[in-house]
Amino acid sequence: MDNEIYRLPRERLDSLIERLARDYRVVGPVKQGATWMWTDVRPGMPLALDYPTTMLPPRQFFAPMRETLFRYHRGDDGRFAFEEPAGERPFALLGVHGCDLTALRVLRAFHESSCRDRLVPGRLDRSFVMGLACWTPCLPESFCRDMGSLESESPASLYVWDIGGVLLVKVQTARGREIMRDVGALDAATPDELVALRKRLRTRPEAFPAQLQFAPEKLATSLKAAESDILWEATADRCLSCGRCNLVCPTCTCFDVGDQASLSGGDGTRTRSWTGCQVPGFSRVAGGHDFRPGRAQQLRYRIFRKGKYMPERYGMVGCTGCGRCATHCPTHISIREIFLQVGRAP
Amino acid sequence: MPQVSMIPEACRILAVTPHNSRDIHFVVEAPKQGFTPEPGQFVMVSLPGIGEAPFSLAALPGEGTAEGTFEMLIRRIGRLTNLITQLKAGDVLYVRGPYGRRVEWDQFEESNLILLAGGLGLAPLRSFVRRALGRRDRFGRIDLLVGARSPDELLFRTDLLVWASRQDDVHVHLTVDAAREGWDGRIGVITSLLDGLAVDTAGTTAFLCGPPVMYRHCLRRLLAMGLYEHNLWLTLERRMKCGLGLCGNCQVDGHYLCSEGPLVSYREVRHLRDVV
Ligand SMILES: Cc1cc2nc3c(=O)[nH]c(=O)nc-3n(C[C@H](O)[C@H](O)[C@H](O)COP(=O)(O)OP(=O)(O)OC[C@H]3O[C@@H](n4cnc5c(N)ncnc54)[C@H](O)[C@@H]3O)c2cc1C
Ligand code: SF4
Ligand code: SF4
Ligand code: FES
Questions:
Q1: Which of A14, A133, B84, B134 yields a CA-CA distance of 20 to 30 A from A102?
Q2: CA torsion, points B15, B18, B24, B28, in degrees to nearest 10?
Q3: Contact residues on chain B for A70, CB-CB shorter than 8 A
C-alpha cells in the first residue's frame, strides 16, 4: 500500500469533506482573524492547507479541554444515580502535521501503558486522520525535524503532499482507500508529479536547519546530568506559572476533576478538564504541603517528563518539537533552547 | 486492558464516631463488586456536586470489621471533608475503588514489624496492624510507634488501649509533641520512640505513614539503625484526582503513585526527585 499515491485535484477537497461528513464530524485548520484554528468544516469552506500550526493541539478532539465524565441526579430514594454520556460522532481531522501525528502516537502509547481510559482510546480508534506534509517550519520555535516528527506520516489514513496545483495523496489504510474510491480519486500520480514530489522532499531539509545537533534519544541521558535545581533557576525565574505551555502541548494529558452542580444541587455533572504540572497547586496536598513548590522544580519536571520520563515509560519522547509552548509562553521560555543547553553540556 | 469508569457506588454509612473535633471515624458499607483491598490501598470518596478525594482504608472488610464493610478516618480540612464529617449513620457516601498497588504480604512473613504512624497516618496503618495481628504467628516482634501533636489528637484510642493490653502481640509506644498537665506519657517527636528499640536489622520491616515532614527524619534514623532500604515501606500522599493512572496529579518522576503506590519501598523510590 506504501506506493499508492493518488492525485486529488484541489477542487475535489469538497467532495472529500462531503464524503467524510457522512460518517464523521469533519474538522480542519481554518484561518480565523490572524490565527488558524481547528474548526468544523463544510464543503465550500477554505481549508487552510498552508496553515502554520494551531495554538490548541488536536488532542482537544480526543481528550477535550473539558468533558463530562458522567451526569448525576438525585432519585426518588434520595440517592444519586449516574449516567455516562452516550458516545459522540467520531472525528475526521484533515491536515494534521507530522508533529501532531506524532503526538497522536504518543497519546496512544500513554493510554496503552496506563490503565485504559474509557473515552480516549476509543476516539483514537474511531477517528479518521488525514496527514499533511510541511514544507517550511510553522514557527520560529519549531524543531520538528530534530525530534524526528517532520517526516512522521502515521497514524494517518491518508497523507497529503501539496506540491502546488494538484494534491498528492498517499493511501495508508484500507479505510483511506475506501474514502478515496468513494470520492473517485483513484487516479495514480503521474511520473512527472512523482518526480516533482521526490525533488521537493530531497530539498526539504534545507528549510529545516538542524537546531539540536544531537539525536532526541540522547535527551534522557543528557537530562539525567541536569538534575541540579541551579541549572533551572535562571530560566524558571521568568516563569509566570500560567500553565499555557501545558495547555498548548499536544502530548500533555493531565486533568483535574470537578463537579458542576445545578442550582438546586439535585443534579449536575462531574467533569474533567485540562491542567498541568506548571499550574500552581498541581503538586499540593491537603495540609498545604507542596512536593514541587518552586518554579525551578516545576519547570524541571515538565522538561524531564517530555525528554526523559515519557521515553523511558512509553517508548516515545514526549516532545514533538511543534514549538507551541515556546511560542505561546508570555516570557518565551523555550524547550528547544533548554534541550540545546542540556544536550550540549559535556 | 479493561476500560474503566469513574462512576462511584452509593455506600451507606453504618456508624460515625468522632475521635476529636475534626477527625471522624466512619464505618461504611463496601462497594458490592470486587472490593477486596490490601493494606495500603485507598478509595475515592465523593459527594456529587461537592467533589471527590482519596481516603485510606482504616480497616479492611473482614479484618477487625464486618465483612462487606470498611472504615475510614476523615479529617475536616476543606470543602469536601467539611461536608463528609457532618454526615450521620444512614447517610450515603459515593465510593469507588479500591485503588493503589497491591503489595503482597507473604514477603513480610517471619519479619519483625515496626509501624510508625504520625497523626492521621495511623488511619492506613491501622489496617496493617490488624492484618499482622490477624496472622500473628507469621511475624516476629511487632512495634507500633504512634506520634501525635497533642494528647487530644491521638486517634483510635480504643484500638491503642486494646493493642496495649496485648503486650505479647504488639508493643505500643506513644509520644506527643506537646501536652498540658495530665499527660504522663512521653513528649517528643516520633523518632525519639526509636531510641532503644532493639532490632535485628536484617529481619525487620518498617511501615511509615504520616505528615510529609516525618519521612525524612524517620528514614534517616531507620537507615542508621541498619534497616535495609527494601524493608522500609512508605505510604506516600500526593494529590490524586482519578486513582487510575490517568490524571497525572500523583506523578513522581513519571511514576503514578495512585497505581504504583501509594505504598512503596524506599529502595524503589529513593533515586526519584522530590519524593520525601
Ligand atoms: C492516598 C491518600 C490517602 C488519604 N487518606 C486520608 C485519610 O485516610 N483521611 C483523611 O482525612 N485524608 C486522607 N487523605 C487526604 C484527603 O484526600 C484530603 O484531605 C482531601 O483531598 C481534602 O479534600 P477537601 O475537599 O476537604 O479539601 P480541599 O478544600 O479540596 O483542599 C484542601 C487541600 O487538599 C488538597 N487536595 C485537594 N484535592 C486533593 C486530592 N485529591 N488529593 C490530595 N490532596 C488534595 C488541596 O490542594 C488543598 O491543599 C488522603 C490522601 C491521599 C492521597
Ligand atoms: S507558558 Fe511560560 S510562563 Fe506560562 S507556565 Fe509555561 S513556562 Fe511558565
Ligand atoms: S513540549 Fe512544547 S514543543 Fe514539545 S510537543 Fe509540547 S508544546 Fe510542542
Ligand atoms: S490519581 Fe490520577 S493518575 Fe494518579
A1: A14
A2: -10
A3: 5-7
Query: What proportion of chain A, given as a percentage, has pLDDT over 70?
Result: 98
Kindly state the cell numbers that stand for A20: 467524510
| Cis amide linkage into residue A137, ω under 30° from 0 | no
State whether the beta carbon of A327 lies less than 6 angstroms from ligand 3: no
User: Quick one: cell of A1?
Assistant: 500500500
Q: Nearest CA to B114 among B40, B64, B170, B56? A: B170
Identify the sign of the CA torsion A44, A49, A52, A54. positive
Kindly give, in sequence order, each residue whose CB lies less than 8 Å from that of residue A33, ignoring residues fewer than 6 positions away.
none
| CA separation for the pair A40, A25 (Å, rounded) | 7
- What are the distances in angstroms from CA A109 to CA A113, A115, A184, A251, A281? 6, 11, 35, 11, 27
pLDDT digits (tens, 9 = 90+) for A298-320: 999 999 999 999 999 999 999 99
Q: Given A257, A292, A309, which is nearest B52 (Cβ)?
A: A257
Contact A251, A107 (CB under 8 A): yes
ipTM for the predicted complex comes to: 0.93
Of B24 and A214, the structure prediction assigns the larger pLDDT to B24
Q: Which residues of B40-64 are buried (b: 16+ CB within 10 A; e: fewer)?
A: bbbbbbbbbbbbbbbbbbbbbbebb
Per CB-CB distance under 8 Å, the chain A contacts of B274 are 283, 291-292, 297
Residue B112, H or E segment: strand B112-118
Burial degree of A341 (CB within 10 A; 0-12, 13-18, 19+): middle
Inter-chain CB proximity A265 and B49 less than 8 Å: yes
Interface test with B, best of A251, A259, A273, A292 (most B CBs within 10 A): A259
pLDDT tens per residue across span B72-120? 999 999 999 999 999 999 999 999 999 999 999 999 999 999 999 999 9
Q: Is B5 on the interface with A (CB under 8 A)?
A: yes
Q: Is A229 helix (H, G, I), strand (E, B) or coil?
A: helix
Q: Where is A106: in which H helix or E strand?
A: helix A98-113
Which amino acid does the sequence have at B52? E
Determine the 3-state secondary structure of A247 from DSSP. helix
Among chain B residues, the shortest Cα distance to A255 is held by: B247
- Print burial letters for B209-218: b (CB count within 10 Å at least 16), e (below 16): bbbbebbeeb
Percent helix, strand, coil in chain B, to 5, is 25, 30, 45
Q: Which run of H or of E encompasses B29? A: strand B23-29
User: Helix axis angle, A295-304 relative to A229-236, nearest 10°?
Assistant: 110
Bridge partners of residue B264, in order along the sequence = B234
Whether B172 contacts B132, CB under 8 Å: no
Domains by residue range for chain B, with CATH: 9-98 (2.40.30.10), 105-235 (3.40.50.80)
Set of chain B residues whose Cβ sits within 8 Å of the Cβ of A304: 253-254
C-alpha dihedral (A169, A173, A174, A179), degrees to nearest 10: -40
Distance CA B106, CA B126 (A): 18
Q: Which residues pair with B24 in a beta bridge?
A: B18, B74
Compute the distance from residue A21 Cα to the ligand 4 centre, in Å: 36
